[in-house]
Specification:
Blueprint: H1 2-31, H2 36-44, H3 48-62, H4 68-75, H5 82-99, H6 104-114, H7 121-134, H8 137-152, H9 159-185, H10 188-218, H11 225-242, H12 250-260, H13 266-298, H14 302-333, H15 353-372, H16 380-399, H17 404-419, H18 433-462, H19 495-525, H20 539-549, E1 564-567, E2 573-580, E3 583-587, E4 591-592, H21 597-610, E5 614-620, H22 625-630, E6 633-645, H23 657-668, E7 672-676, H24 682-696, H25 711-714, E8 719-723, E9 729-737, E10 743-751, H26 759-773, E11 778-785, H27 797-807, H28 815-822, E12 828-837, H29 842-854
Parallel strand pairs: 3-5, 10-11
Antiparallel strand pairs: 1-2, 2-3, 2-4, 5-12, 6-11, 6-12, 7-8, 8-9, 9-10
Helix pairs in contact: 2-13, 3-10, 3-13, 4-5, 4-7, 4-10, 5-6, 5-13, 6-7, 8-9, 8-10, 9-10, 9-11, 10-13, 11-12, 12-13, 14-15, 14-17, 15-16, 15-19, 16-17, 18-19, 23-26
Length: 863
């Protein structure tokens, strides 16, 4: 039995493939002779209203297919609400219509959906088999009516007539059998169920015929319903017998051959078949796919829902961007003039509505190219601009640009705009130079191509001699049924006006480029009007958070005052940051309550995203990696922070001989070290300022991740001072707390020109001793930016670029010098990282951070 089943399936597959191959071979012979320009002519006659009616007819004709399961729901029953059953039925029917195989695909899909909601799965299969069997009732009734009508009227007794009699007898037999069974078993309920299924089948086939004949009417095909009926019935019979999925090939070939007998153009029939396939198969299938995706989405957990949402968002964004790009390109290059409006008007190329439409379409095309580059910003304003642009395009399409392709693009565009409305939620965006350069390059490329395309036309018109023209040699697509080449008068072609028209196209191109590049400039300049809520330093709140929850090695820099501060809603975490381009660069880890770090980071991220900014973390450690990784961040080592373990610090031994000599040299020269407590006297502050000014040597202060010489700032903690034998201050270092009661550090270290070597060693050795005496365990020597980054030959190329910035970065700070000096004392190195979004460019992000670090601080109004 198993062998027989396998053999049957093999034979069935071979038959289907053979039929499919023969049908498509014959279709190919017909389609090879199709006139593409004539096909396009018929397609261009369709209006947007026609296309909407066709889509509506397709959906209406498909609705009855999903009624079967509503009957099955009561007979088994299925423990699901009506809405859910109808949804599953639509999904199953739309897929099985494409797959075919005599309804077996529908049975499998429905069993999959309903198996958990019925008591007896075998009963479900039986009911689905019954539906498949009775599904032919509608077509059988149509065949019966046709054969009776044919017998009494036209009296054509051909193969279609006899086939229709055989199919027509099916419903008679089913009704007779059901009636007898009902009388015998006295099971009225089962009989009524059969009648309902048969009624749905009849409704289904009636709506299908109305769809395809409605398409014939819309396309203007001169075929009556009487002429169409036998062709359609024959096509359906052959399609059913072939069992080819959707009757693909067999139905199409039979219908094409049959309609050609009534002198219908192959191009019209091809268009009819395409529209029928799209409206009856593709549109319902797309609806089914959407329903299935929503069902999957509703039945998944929150994590998978978020993943699906992100994937769908990315796909939708890409499709919408591509659609806008393509629409822009079509508007620039696809300029079609209906010649029937031109022939009888000598002044058609004067300034009028058609010329205005020409200017508008080309300018809009270039603007859409720019608009496509900012769709990913997802702001409400961009959405409103997109809606306005497509409203103008729709107006142009319905009045001037009459082509099937343009209608299709407009419909797809509006569908995507409507579906993507919720994606445009942001209040602002930042237009970067990267986006601007992409837009300008795209505009210039299209500008060049459009000039190359249009310049030859102008040259040909410029050298054209009207008296030597032969109408049959002119390659013009005269889109008018009224046009007759024998009656056409060449003298009606105004060469000068034609040249003027091409000139206006070229002017429109230049105008489009100028306006689109102007838009780019405007977008760059509106960045300054971004209304991101920036909060300045509130010392009381910051001190309260630090005193309650502790700080970090970078927390003290918040008091420099050159950064903005974000405090979370619960006011137990804060971030210090600065803004550059589209990045919000955060210095260090979040500071405050560690239990609130993740929520606070998400909160700040959402706020930044709402205004078009991306958070970048600089100087973070591995403790915050898990939270940032979950938010889609990647990491690159920024550098290393040198830590001295004070318990192990000593100047004893041969290893520390050079350090002892350096300190001894300064001691012998009469230099002294002392710690001064704030507040400082005016005289002391003046001396400190003299040292600072000499050290700066006319340069501006830096900021962001270093302090600067400001009285209020340096008086926040003690200061280490080095004096010479005469009592003059020669160097100082501001002590910086780490807010953990275990670690001390320095911020500013400045000195005058000293001839002796070892002044920095002298300062640090004394600071280490002071820290040990006051109970500190560690001394933080600070960060060496980009140290040991990208040195390995196996490093990523982006890290190697960062390394080149490091070795050539002395114009910002002496990175290499810092590493060499701190290595003398460091007992441990803590690695610090840059955390950046994976879709961001690391190189650009690094350059932006270094630019931020190198910005000079104006302190002219201070001190």
């Amino acid at each position: 039995m198993k062998i027989n089943k396998k053999l049957f399936r093999i034979i069935q597959s071979i038959v289907i493939i053979t039929i499919f191959f023969i049908a498509f071979k014959e279709l190919y012979k017909i389609f090879i002779d199709i006139d593409i320009s004539l096909f396009k002519k018929y397609a261009d006659k369709l209006t947007i209203v026609n296309l909407l009616i066709i889509a509506a007819l397709g959906v209406i004709s498909y609705i009855p297919l999903s009624f079967y399961d509503l009957v099955t729901r009561k007979s088994i029953p299925i423990d699901l609400p009506i809405g859910k059953v109808y949804k599953y039925s639509w999904i199953a029917s739309s897929v099985s219509s494409i797959v075919g195989f005599g309804g077996s695909a529908a049975i499998l899909i429905k069993n999959h959906f309903y198996k958990n909601y019925v008591k007896d799965k075998s009963e479900l299969t039986k009911e689905n088999l019954k539906v498949v069997g009775l599904n032919l009732s509608g077509f059988s009734l149509i065949c019966l009516i046709y054969s009776i009508w044919c017998f009494f009227t036209i009296k054509e007794f051909n193969i279609v007539f006899y086939a229709s009699i055989l199919f027509g007898l099916y419903i008679v037999g089913v009704l007779a059998f059901s009636t007898c069974k009902c009388i015998k078993d006295k099971n009225k309920e089962a009989y009524l169920i059969n009648l309902k299924i048969m009624s749905i089948s009849i409704l289904e086939w009636i709506t299908t015929i109305l769809l395809i004949y409605g398409l014939i009417v819309i396309l203007g095909i001169k075929v009556t319903l009487v002429q169409f009926a036998p062709v359609y019935i024959k096509a359906i019979i052959i399609a059913i017998i072939s069992m080819v999925p959707g009757g693909a090939g067999t139905f199409d070939l039979t219908l094409l051959v049959g309609l050609k007998k009534f002198n219908v153009q192959s191009e019209q029939i091809l268009l009819l078949l395409i529209l029928y396939r799209i409206s009856y198969y593709i549109v319902p299938l797309l609806i089914g796919v959407i329903l299935y995706i929503t069902e999957l989405y509703n039945n998944t957990n929150s994590e998978i829902k978020e993943l699906m949402s992100r994937i769908n968002s990315k796909i939708a964004s890409t499709i919408l961007t591509l659609t806008v790009y393509i629409t822009g390109i079509l508007l620039i290059f696809w300029i079609e003039i209906d010649i029937s409006k031109v022939i009888h008007r000598s002044s058609i190329f004067k300034i009028n509505i058609l010329d205005f439409a020409l200017y508008l379409s080309i300018v809009l095309g270039f603007l859409l190219v720019v608009l496509a580059s900012i769709l990913n910003t997802r702001t409400k304003k961009v959405y409103y601009i997109l809606v306005t642009s497509f409203a103008l395009i729709t107006l142009l399409t319905m009045t001037v640009i009459k082509s099937f392709t343009s209608y299709l693009v407009v419909i797809i565009g509006w569908l995507l705009i409507i579906l993507s409305k919720n994606r445009f939620y942001k209040k602002g965006f930042i237009y970067t130079w990267k986006s601007a350069m992409k837009s300008i390059c795209s505009v210039l490329i299209l500008f060049t191509i459009s000039l190359i395309v249009n310049s030859p036309s102008y040259s040909q018109l410029n050298s054209l001699d009207i008296n030597s023209l032969d109408i049959n040699s002119i390659n013009i697509n005269f889109n008018s049924e009224e046009f007759n080449s024998e009656e056409f008068d060449l003298s009606k072609i105004d060469i000068e006006e034609s040249k003027a028209y091409v000139e206006r196209i070229i002017i429109s191109i230049f105008l489009g480029v100028i306006i689109s590049i102007s838009l780019v400039i405007i977008l760059l300049n509106i960045n300054r009007f971004n209304k991101f809520p920036k909060e300045k330093l509130n010392k009381e709140k910051i001190k309260e958070i630090i005193s309650k929850h502790g700080g970090s090695s970078l927390a003290h820099y918040v008091f420099v005052g050159d950064k903005y501060v974000y405090i979370n809603d619960t006011e137990d975490v804060f971030f210090q940051y600065q803004i550059i381009s589209d990045k919000i660069v955060i210095l260090g880890n979040p500071i405050g309550n560690e239990n609130s770090f993740f929520n606070a980071t998400r909160e700040f991220y959402d706020l930044a995203d709402l205004y078009g900014y991306t958070l970048v973390f600089t100087g973070v450690d591995i403790n915050i990696f898990p939270e940032l990784h979950d938010m889609g961040y990647d990491f690159m080592k920024l550098g290393q922070e040198a830590i001295v373990k004070l318990e192990d610090f000593s100047l004893a031994g041969n290893k520390n001989k050079s350090k002892r000599q350096a300190v001894s040299r300064i001691d012998k020269a009469g230099y002294t070290f002392s710690i001064e407590e704030p507040p400082f006297t005016d005289e002391l502050f003046k001396e400190l300022k003299d040292v600072s000014d000499e050290w700066l040597n006319g340069k501006k202060e830096k900021g962001f991740c270093v302090g600067y010489f400001d009285r209020e700032y340096i008086e926040m903690d003690k200061i280490a001072i080095v004096r010479n034998a005469e009592g003059e201050i020669k160097a100082f270092a501001t002590i910086m707390p780490m807010y953990d009661n275990k670690t001390l550090s320095v911020d500013l270290m400045r000195f005058k020109d000293i001839q002796l070597n070892g002044i920095m060693d002298f300062i640090f050795v004394n600071l280490f001793e002071y820290s040990k005496e006051n109970g500190y365990e560690f001394f933080n020597l600070g960060l060496v930016p980009l140290a040991e980054v990208g040195e390995s030959k196996y490093s990523f190329i982006r890290e190697k670029i960062a390394y080149q910035i490091f070795i050539n970065g002395n114009f910002i700070y002496s990175f290499k010098g810092l590493k060499k000096f701190k290595d003398k004392y460091a007992s441990d190195w803590n690695e610090k990282y840059i955390a950046y979004k994976k879709e961001s460019s690391l190189v650009i992000t690094c350059i932006q951070i270094l630019k931020l670090l190198s910005q000079e601080k104006d302190t002219s109004d201070k001190n």
